[in-house]
Design goal:
Blueprint (H helix, E strand, L loop, with lengths): L7 H7 L3 E10 L5 E6 L9 E3 L6 H13 L8 E7 L8 E11 L13 E7 L1 H7 L6 H12 L3 E4 L2
Parallel strand pairs: 1-5, 4-7
Antiparallel strand pairs: 1-3, 2-6, 4-5
């Protein structure tokens, strides 16, 4: 005799969970990458954030850019899907979607959300990657490769 099936809500509660986030790769007219320095982390980040319930990744990326930088942008092509294991104080897997946000026409229009961000800067690709956390830095080289080839890059691990 087999055990009775779980009710859907009970079954879903047994499944592993993950954090899901979305970011936008934004550049300036010279091709430098926009990175931001949050006031709650010791390292810089690619602008973006955690997806809200019912939100599509591309909607999240555009919303976060509006909230954090005051820019109205649309998420373009999906450049990178990054799966990373738990690390440091993050107890779950993180899945990040990195979209192409194109070039910022007027960098002077950036308005930082001061309760979250201390600084934003357009930097050369290598310098921007050096300021990111070790577990997110590989996204930049993957995004560059995706832009050059026109193909989304799947990036497992760090």
């Amino acid at each position: 005799m087999s055990e009775p099936l779980l009710e859907p809500e009970q079954w879903y509660a047994t499944l592993p969970t993950a954090f899901v986030s979305a970011c936008l790769l934004l550049t300036d007219a010279d091709g430098r990458v926009l990175v931001v320095k949050p006031n709650y982390r010791p390292y810089w980040m690619i602008p973006g954030g955690v997806i809200e319930p019912g939100e599509l990744p591309e909607e999240c990326a555009a919303r976060e850019i509006g909230e954090e930088l005051g820019l109205e942008v649309r998420a373009g092509e999906l450049l990178v899907v990054h799966w990373s294991p738990p690390v440091d104080d993050r107890p779950r897997v993180m899945v990040n979607f990195l979209f192409d946000g194109g070039a910022v026409a007027d960098p002077g229009a950036i308005r930082l959300q001061e309760d979250e961000l201390d600084e934003a800067a357009f930097l050369p690709w290598e310098e921007a990657a050096a300021r990111l956390a070790f577990h997110t830095a590989p996204r930049l080289s993957a995004a560059r490769r995706a832009r050059e080839t026109g193909r989304t890059v799947y990036l497992p691990g760090w």
